Amino acid sequence: MSEMWINMGPQHPMTHGLWNLRVRIEGELIRDVDPEMGYLHRGIEKISEDRHYNEVITLMDRCCYVAGLAWEHLYIRAAEQALHVDPPERAEYLRVLCDEFQRLGSHLMWYAAFVQDLGLMSPFLYGMRDRDLVLDLFQSYTGARMTYEYMRVGGVRNDLPPGFTASARKVLDWLSDRFREYDQLCLGSTIFRKRCDGLGVLKGPDAVHHGVTGPMLRSAGVKRDLRKDRPYAVYGQLDFDVAFADGADVTARYLVRMEEMRQSVRLLRQVLDWLDRHPGPVIAEHLPRWLGAPYAPIGLEGYLLKRNYPKGVGFSAVEEPHGEALAYVVNEGGEHPYRVKFRSPVFANLSAARTYLVGYHVADIPPIMGSVDVCVGEVDR
Amino acid sequence: MGRLSAPATSPGAGAAPAAVPAEPAVPFVEIEAVRAKEFVPAAKEALTALVAEQGQRKLIQPVFNWAGRNSLFPLHWGLACCAIEFAAAFGARWDAERFGVVPRSSPRQCDLLIVNGTVTWKVAHKLVTLYEQMPEPKWVIAMGNCATGGGPFRTAYSVVPGVDKLVPVDVYIAGCPPRPEAMLDGILELEKLIRERKE
Amino acid sequence: MQPADLEQALRPRLGEHLLGVEPFEGTAGKVRFDRSAAVATFRALHDELGFTHLAMIGGIDWVAHREVVYTLWSDAAKQYVFLSTTVPADDAHVESASGVWPSANWHEREAWEMVDITFDHHPDLRHLLMPDGYAFHPLLRSFKLHEPEELEVKVRHV
Fold first, then answer.
1. Which among A277, B39, B95, B135 is least buried, having the fewest CB atoms inside 10 angstroms?
2. What is the span of the domain harbouring residue B53?
């Protein structure tokens, strides 16, 4: 049978975003794939060179729009290292709180979108319903549902509102009951099992070789989690397990993400307990004045201070919901970063598409690509 | 809408289901809810009477507008951040489908293009192609600041500063991203526009 | 693993092509190497030191020269390491790492497209994020951003 290339995207219900999967097929069999990216390339790295350090945070929210706070955290850690600023401890706990709630939100969004691809409509409604509860919590202390602009160089913008921890615990209680229902809906469904078991297999050594990270790597039996291996913020003081599975297929990725959500709930309970017991400042006290308020008139003295501020290079690594995200910030003096470079986990996971798609059928593409959890914003940046 | 209200008296076949208000510039049709089996002959009878009374053009347009605005089918196309709020509007809490808005995956089945995110030059001609593939009549909603005018990325080298450079836009929704309520409000604004449509 | 350990392990293999190992907070160090020994450096780190995961390749434009920074991770040492090499701006090319780490493929395509650094013997060096035929390299310092002009787009129907 003759072979041909077909385009799945940029407008295709499988893509969940703006990208194009070019597939070479022979009949129903996938012979080769070539993801075509860049449809959402917004030049975030370039725009950052034109902005104050705190203004880049705005772009980070839009960079990965399902995990905005995790990307803020990533950028902020690198910027703090480049600018020689240390945040107070309560701010670090608040950032972990943001990170883990964001992981819940992102995984719930993934669950809603992924299971809908398989033809099960009701999990979409349940996933979105529960994600909205998490977004309500974000809204109560950042003021926004998706684009938060909450973290600052040197800490976070504001403390939690009164009564937050109680309502957060209520949401966690609700969620931890729901995970069992999700499993029943999916793992108990013949449709789900037949479309997921044994598909998209990517074994551990291959995954490492191709730079795959996050739940995709952990589902292949490699226990790499930056929260455990290279603890940042306060993860070293918290008690949790790394979720991993051995199946290396779509079902294994589902299991890993579900277990990660349970671990996030466990982490969040510890963080909330700590926050209840330790009030304190949430932003560093001795920030350079020009950093605190970019447009405030600072006079000649402030200008000279800004000119003479020490240079530096910052690097940070954060376990984002999709995997390992890195940031590299170069501070050459002055108010704008000289160069900002990000590593997106989905970028690497997609670049390995050939290894886990070739040999399967066209109808297997939606479940396999759904299990990758593509967020195009961070791939194209 | 031209109300599909519960029948006040007996819903029997042959009840005169149509009434044309005299005053508004754009008349609309009221059809009482009856069972489908009874609806067709009843509607046929009412429409025939109206055509005889008013002339074809004046009648058909309001019926088209009524049907169109209550079954807007947007294209299932997620561009960027706003697409997540677009999806949330179809979730359990906001349930956009109660307005008859159902996303379809093929542009051939759609009459509404919701541009929910940043449009880059690389995707610009694909967007125009999709718009051209949609059958008439069709509408465009620019959702969010990026689609309206480039938003925070307007200075970027790869971003179209506003989708109205490419396709005609009917409704703009502000916000970055707009909340689902704002998106629903935009759809209701569009329904108002369609209601007054004359051509 | 400390910068001194890295230097001790790499010096016999690279000789004078190893330009030094600087400490870098949060990583094992920043290895500076000469671009003529690129593949030998990659091999040494991948095969001998166990840095099997290539996380990121980034290019930085320092106007007079350009710098390529590779970020590697070792599962055994649980540490990151930076590799860095400089290339002159008028002759910006370096050997591709995709023979050692397949994940380098897309990162190098992006670095070529954004910072104009050519990677020799790359299997597939073409545009990744910008459309084919895009003539500029946006992340060079000479590329300036500006407010969009009033523009009128004419859609041609074919």
1. A277
2. 1-70
Contact call for B154 and C130, based on CB within 8 A: no
- Domain stops at, among B25, B43, B70: B70
Q: How far apart are CA A258 and CA A261, in angstroms?
A: 5
CB of B151 within 8 Å of a chain C CB? The answer is: no
A122 lies in which domain range?
43-380
How distant is the Cα of A151 from the closest Cα of chain B, in angstroms? 18
Asked if residue B60 belongs to a domain, the reply is: yes
Q: Is the pLDDT of residue B77 over 90?
A: no
Domain identity same for B125 and B188:
yes
The CATH number of whichever domain residue A185 belongs to comes to 1.10.645.10
Distance, in angstroms, between B194 CA and closest chain C CA?
25
pLDDT digits (tens, 9 = 90+) for A16-74: 888 888 999 988 899 999 998 889 898 899 988 888 888 888 888 888 888 889 999 99
Q: Does domain C3-120 have CATH number 3.90.940.20?
A: no
DSSP A105-122: HHHHHHHHHHHHHTT--H
Instruction: Tell me what pLDDT residue B17 has.
Output: 46
Among B43, B70, B97, give the residue marking a domain's end: B70
Q: Residue C64 class from Cβ within 10 Å (0-12 exposed, 13-18 middle, 19+ buried)?
A: exposed
Provide the pLDDT for residue B12.
Answer: 42
Q: What is the mean pLDDT of residues A173-183?
A: 89
For chain C, the chains sharing at least 3 beta-carbon pairs closer than 8 angstroms are A, B
Question: What's residue A64's pLDDT?
Answer: 87
Number of other residues whose CB lies within 10 A of the CB of residue B33: 12
ipTM: 0.86
